[in-house]
Design goal:
- The structure is a single chain.
- The chain is of the alpha+beta class.
- It contains 7 helices and 16 strands.
- The protein has a 16-stranded antiparallel β-sheet with strand order 1-2-3-4-5-6-7-8-9-10-11-12-13-14-15-16, covered by helices on one side.
- Helix 6 runs antiparallel to helix 7.
- The longest helix has 46 residues.
- It is elongated.
Length: 494
């Protein structure tokens, strides 16, 4: 048995149980913390769109850092579109310049960034998509910006038909890289020789091609020993070397060498071939050698491919020259693109808006001039005085209202007369029809029915016009009376 006691147990209040007095105190504290602030004595800050786009006083800000300096410009402040220029130095005095990075915006030539490396003399230009030549990046030396010098060009390959990604050029070589071509070529390297001096314009004297190297991806539709991996045209030695793709479980590739026949480049020249003009190395000795006809067709195809490659190389050289000439023009006269929604800078949009405003003003003026002055004929009767007396004002008002009343009555009488005339004509036609109904032909009956239909239509229209005129006449009278009362020439007397 447990011991019991009659004493009350000590109850410990729970955390959730709170004293209502404490709650009231908290509410009083919250109410006491609320107070009204006086209105601000500072005017509202108003910033125009032009000031907001300026970003800083005069649109230019310069910050100095440790071995660096950055200059920021507002958009459209400079004619060339420069918005940022970061200069890096090799000393704390900011005198030994190492690199300068310029950022542009709104350029029509899509130039975004230009980096000047003062140590190597290299200039790198980065472009946004949208150029006609699909140029993405252009790196060249400041000491030799012209053609046939060291440079690297990157292109937006998806926008080009030939799939060109990269072009590296030097005075002696030019290397091009491709992607996603139908002929599986991904690499072409050209070696140039020294230009032979000739009389005449030097522009037509192109660099002689000594060697062309072309490489191809694997074409799964062909056998490995038939699929060319590398094709070398030794133009100066008049030789063509082929290297095929490796077969499975092979460490050596098959090769074939051709001696190009003479006079193949002359128009109308015939291509002759002898067995000693080709040599081959076949990795698999069990494969039967190709017939002479197949080898001859291969040689003809290679000669045509060499000519085609030569033409493409000359086209690439011309493209480089055109890009460089275009870049010179773009840098000499930089143009910025302006959005059609920017009416302040877009001259075409501004002129169009001004033209619309001018036409609207002309139409409003014309409309105002066309509005008739209802007091003009009555003022002319009294000599159009500069000041109107009270008696003249009352007289003008009565005459104007009487004139409107007479015109409304005349119009109602005119409509009523036309209505009665049409009704009488219809009744006369109906009586004539009843008298001659027996002797009438079918055509006469159709003519009578058509006349009745048209007459009823005219009578109905006249009846509607008359009813509408009766409804609007009192309203027009009241409106004119109100206009006369509010007219500045008569309002002082009413």
């Amino acid at each position: 048995m447990f011991s019991t006691t009659d004493k009350p147990l000590l109850m410990i209040p729970s955390v959730d149980e709170t004293d209502p007095l404490d709650i009231d105190d908290e509410e009083n504290d919250d109410e006491g913390s609320d107070f009204d602030l006086p209105p601000s004595w500072v005017d509202l800050v108003e910033i125009t769109l032009k000031e907001f786009q300026t970003r800083c006083p005069y649109g230019k800000k310069t910050k100095l850092y440790k071995k660096a300096k950055i200059e920021k410009f507002a958009e459209y402040l400079l004619k060339d579109g420069l918005v940022s220029c970061l200069a890096s130095y090799n000393d704390y005095e900011l005198k030994d310049l190492i690199e300068k990075r310029e950022v542009y915006k709104h350029r029509i030539d899509k130039l975004e960034t230009k980096v000047h490396n003062m140590t190597t003399g290299l200039i790198t230009e980065l472009f946004a998509p949208g150029r006609l030549d699909c140029l993405k990046e252009h790196a060249y030396k400041a000491s030799a910006p012209g053609p046939e010098s060291d440079r690297t060009m990157l292109f937006y390959c998806s926008a080009r038909i030939d799939g060109l990604v990269k072009r590296e050029e030097s005075p002696e070589e030019m290397t091009e890289s491709y992607v996603d071509r139908d002929d599986f070529m991904y690499y072409r390297q050209v070696t140039f020789g020294k230009r032979v001096k000739k009389f005449g314009p030097q522009e037509a004297n192109s660099r002689p091609i000594v060697k062309i190297v072309e490489r191809f991806h694997r074409n799964k539709s062909k056998e490995a020993n038939e699929d060319v991996a590398e094709r070398v045209f030794l133009v100066s030695d008049e030789r063509i070397n082929l290297t095929f793709h490796l077969e499975d479980n092979r460490v050596t590739a098959s090769t074939r060498e051709f001696i190009r026949p003479p006079h193949t480049t002359e128009k109308g020249g015939t291509l002759t071939m002898t067995p000693d003009m080709t040599t081959t190395f076949q990795v698999d000795p069990l494969i039967k050698p190709h017939k002479n006809l197949h080898v001859y067709d291969m040689l003809v195809e290679l000669v045509n491919a060499e000519e085609q490659s030569t033409n493409q190389i000359r086209t690439s050289e011309e493209e480089v020259k055109e890009i460089l000439q275009l870049r010179i023009k773009e840098e000499a006269a930089s143009q910025l693109s302006v959005s059609v929604y920017d009416t302040e800078r877009n001259e075409k949009a501004k002129l169009h808006r001004q033209e619309l405003e001018r036409k609207a003003a002309e139409e409003a003026l014309k409309k105002h001039e066309l509005e008739l002055d209802y007091l003009a004929p009555f003022l002319a009767q009294i000599g159009d005085p500069p000041h109107i007396s009270r008696q003249e004002a009352y007289k003008l008002k009565e005459e104007c209202l009487q004139d409107l009343k007479h015109r409304l009555i005349d119009k109602a009488n005119l409509i009523q007369a036309r209505f009665e005339k049409e009704t009488q004509e219809l009744q006369r036609k109906q009586s004539w029809y009843q008298q001659n109904q027996v002797s009438m032909t079918k055509e006469d009956e159709e003519e009578y029915l058509n006349y009745c239909s048209e007459a009823m239509f005219r009578i109905h229209i006249l009846e509607q016009r008359l009813n509408r005129h009766k409804e609007l006449a009192p309203q027009k009278y009241v409106q004119l009376e109100q206009k006369l009362r509010t007219d500045p020439r008569l309002s002082e007397y009413f």
